[in-house]
Design goal:
The structure is a single chain. By secondary structure, this protein is α/β, with parallel strands linked by helices. It is 30% helix and 29% strand. The chain contains 12 helices and 15 strands. Helix 6 packs antiparallel against helix 7. The two termini are 45 Å apart. Bound molecules: zinc ion. Zinc ion binds next to helix 11. The site of zinc ion (ZN) has 4 residues, from helix 11.
Length: 365
């Protein structure tokens, strides 16, 4: 599959517009036209990971942490990042990063963490987006309406809640006069034509609007397609960072911490709070989420599971009577490899391997 087509598939599920504005996600190195057969998934790409990709003949590396984050003003062999970029290009390896868009998106990292813990009915902890919606109206000659509706559905237009392929259709008459230099599908040049047409209306999320319009224009038989796009005031699907869930069965903080240790395969774990505190509602933010302690408590959570908690943040949590399990940044996010491999494998077109390079910079002895 061409890289641009794979990226279309990835971004229809994990749109880049969900990422924070300070983030850097998408294709960071590579050629959209490259043919992709073998993919390496990894939390991040350092020199060892790039070498691993080369020795495994990988075409694409997918990382969670952006490979290029701060501004680069030159690419040369004089620094590590430049050397790695050159190495990727020389070996024809592309690199794609999906970071906060993957944290926020449905079925991304936070949902996957809750899934492997067995916590269900998750809600969003901190709302970051309410997707903008547009109404797309297309005028189609009779006989072509099924084809255009199929294109809309295949490109995820027409979603209302869990209903897909939603459209409204009205029959009518289109009129037009083909001027000199045109090649009309119906009628003659210089004559006013009347055509039986169907007006198809559907709703489209902002993130896929351009792609949907492009695909409709490609499939439509007319040389000049009449279509309208209206901005809607309806609220789209809400997205956000972190998850919160009420447990089916109460557990103690100690039981929860042990469950996390066995799920994430950890030897040790840090926590704030009484080991025998009763836990009924759990908040989660993978990576660095210690600033969500207050919000988690306000939303009724008995504990926040996250990483990167600092000493004074831990003191504040203790003062407000909030439990925190600090699994560390690495351990909450290394599962990126598992969820991403599962997603890529669902296409049944690629060989996907998980990086075996151990990337946690910390050692606990
Ligand atoms: Zn991270």
């Amino acid at each position: 599959m061409k890289l641009c087509n794979l990226i279309d598939k990835i971004e229809s599920k994990y749109p880049t517009n969900l990422a924070y504005s300070w983030d850097n996600v998408g294709l960071l190195v590579g050629d959209y036209e490259n043919d992709i057969k073998k993919i390496l998934v990894t939390l991040e790409a350092n020199e060892a990971v790039v070498d691993e990709a080369i020795s495994n003949n990988v075409d694409l590396i997918i990382t969670h942490h952006p490979f290029i984050f701060s501004k680069i003003s030159r690419v040369n062999s004089g620094d590590l990042k430049g050397r790695l970029i050159l190495k990727l290009i020389k070996n024809d390896i592309s690199l794609y990063s999906m970071h906060t868009n993957f944290d926020i998106a449905k079925d991304g990292l936070n949902d996957y963490f809750m899934e492997i813990m067995g916590f269900k009915n998750c809600e969003i902890l901190e709302e970051t987006h309410s997707e903008k919606l547009y109404k797309l109206v297309i005028y189609v000659p009779v006989g072509y309406e099924d084809k255009i509706r199929a294109v809309l559905g295949a490109n995820n237009a027409g979603y209302i809640g869990n209903y897909s392929h939603c459209t409204f259709n009205t029959s009518g008459t289109g009129t037009f006069k083909a001027e000199e230099g045109t090649n009309p599908f119906i009628g003659e040049i210089g004559q006013i034509e009347k055509a039986d047409e169907v007006k198809i209306e559907t709703v489209v999320q902002e993130g896929i609007l351009n792609k949907v319009v492009q695909e409709v224009l490609k499939a439509h038989p007319y040389e000049e397609v009449a279509y309208d796009v209206y901005e809607l005031k309806n609220q789209g699907q809400k997205e956000g960072l972190g998850r919160i869930s009420t447990l089916d069965k109460e557990m103690t903080l100690e039981e929860l911490a042990n469950k996390i240790k066995s799920t994430l395969n950890m030897d040790k774990i840090r926590l704030v709070g009484n080991l025998d505190s009763k836990i009924n509602r759990v908040a989660l933010c993978t990576g660095a989420g210690s600033d969500l302690v207050k919000l988690s408590k306000a939303k009724g959570a008995d504990v926040l599971i996250t990483g990167d908690m600092k000493y004074h943040e831990a003191q504040d949590a203790l003062d407000m009577g909030m439990n925190v399990v600090d699994c560390g940044h690495f351990d909450t996010e290394d599962i990126f490899k598992d969820v991403m491999k599962r997603f890529i494998d669902s296409f049944e077109e690629f060989e996907t391997i998980k990086s075996e390079v151990y990337l946690n910079p910390f050692k606990i002895i």
